Amino acid sequence: MPDLYDMRDVLAIVLAGGQGERLHPLTKDRAKPAVQFGGQYRLIDFTLSNCLNSRCRRVLVLVQYKSLSLVRHIREGWGMLSPDLDEYIEPVPAQKRVGEDWYLGTADAIYQNMYSIDPANPSEVLILSGDHIYKMNYGEMVAFHRRNKADMTIATLEMPVEQANRFGVLEVDYTAQVIGFQEKPAAPAPLPDRPDTALASMGVYVFNTDVLKDAVSADAKTQSSHDFGKDIIPELIRTHNVFAYMFRDENKKAAPYWRDVGTLDSYWEANLDLVDIVPVFNLYDQDWPIRTRLHNLPPAKFVFGAEGVRFGAAVDSIVSAGCIVSGGLVKRSVLSPNVRVNSYSHVEESILLPGSNVGRNCRIRRTIIERNVQIPENTVIGYDANEDAKRFFVSPGGIVVVAASELTPLVPNAERMPYHAG
After folding, report:
1. Which pairs with CB-CB distance under 8 Å and at least 24 residues apart come from 182-187?
2. Backbone conformation region of residue 166, classed left if phi is above 0, alpha if psi is from -120 to 50, else beta
3. 19, 318, 327, 336: which could join 309 in a potential S-S bond, CB 3.0 to 4.6 Å?
4. Do residues 153 and 141 lie in contact, with contact meaning Cβ atoms separated by under 8 Å?
5. For helices 68-77 and 44-53, what crossing angle results, to 10°?
6. End-to-end Cα distance, the chain
């Protein structure tokens, strides 16, 4: 009897070329999957960790937009597999192999890279997004796909109808076969027996390889948007066996956790999910480790600041390697590697990206501070919306993003620890 959970014949393709316009200015100089998250991680680390934890060890990462830091991160942090055992995590740049266009959509990205699929000769292809936060055993989904003799399987998540208009929404019969699909509908179709709940696509697909190749090749000959949700899925529902797989969460919490951090507000909220006493998303589960590229940095340090300063502390916060909280106070915040918080400063509900430095006597609240930004002494951010809007980008939810390179440096460059850009 064949092993339905055998992942050796599965090739995973991670779509990681997205521009991430709604995360601007964090994506001004890098692809969305390369954006820092949770202190020491990048967004793509969660998808790649799912692959390894699911025993999927043949992975292609399709990159395109401002991909230097993403490619570097994959090379330096994800090179542990053995090519001699036909295992790899390989970034694949856009190469215009079939024409003069860059990727025109998710389906076109696969079509332009069919030459990369052929040498692997997989029985199934697993299509993944490189910018979602979740824990999932893809082997369970592949086994479901095989048991149902499906041509395509779509991972799905139940969510309130009023929130489903941002996603593809599926209609299924009693066997979980998909009988209808709407891409970002104004009025999402609810489940038949639950009018307040819709079944949303997670952007995770399993295809039989021949079905995938035929579908994207046929789509390439049309004037469509070359997108899985808008074009491929609706067509396959009419002609093939397409099934819905209900997301089984490996996060070990009461409610399933899956986040599309496509906006600054959702990015900030997902980071803050990590700092609760009992975090909504658990980074500390040794049964499902999240891997990343770890830099050679000293441990974090907490010290008294200037004379009379009686604290140097972080409360309900994530503090990464290389950080120094020197006479400052940090509450419910995420400090990435090499961050400095200096005397008399208060940082609250904020995300400080690598190399940022908060000078003395600052008050920072509900703020994202970009890489290597130096906050001058006596700066106040996050307390006056009108003043913040004059100087910085402010999200619809009121999150301030400080990415202004013209801010006055606090210390000479020679005194700052190196941490490459991107």
Report:
1. 183/227, 183/229, 183/230, 183/233, 183/234, 184/229
2. alpha
3. 327
4. yes
5. 30
6. 48
Structure tokens at 340: 């400095």
Token pair listed for 70: 């993403």
Alpha carbon 411 to chain centroid, angstroms: 33
With a cut of 50, say whether residue 414 has pLDDT above it: no
User: For residue 98, what are its two tokens?
Assistant: 């079939």
* Pairing status of strand 132-134 against strand 346-348: unpaired
Which amino acid is it at 168?
G
What is the Cα–Cα distance from 93 to 134, expressed in whole angstroms? 25
pLDDT confidence band for 419 (50 / 70 / 90): very low
Distance CA 263, CA 270 (A): 11
Mean pLDDT, residues 236-265 taken together: 94
**DSSP bridge partners of 59:** 12, 89
- The tokens describing 216, both together, are 């994207």
The angle subtended at Cα 18 by Cα 16 and Cα 21, nearest 5°, is 150
Q: What is the pTM of this model?
A: 0.92
Please tell me whether the peptide bond between 122 and the residue prior to it is cis, using omega within 30 degrees of 0. no
Hey, CA dihedral for 60, 105, 264, 28, is it positive or negative?
positive
Q: Which two tokens stand for residue 172?
A: 């299924």
Beta bridge mates, 121: none
Kindly tell me the burial class for residue 292, based on how many C-beta atoms sit within 10 Å of its own C-beta (0-12, 13-18, 19 or more): buried
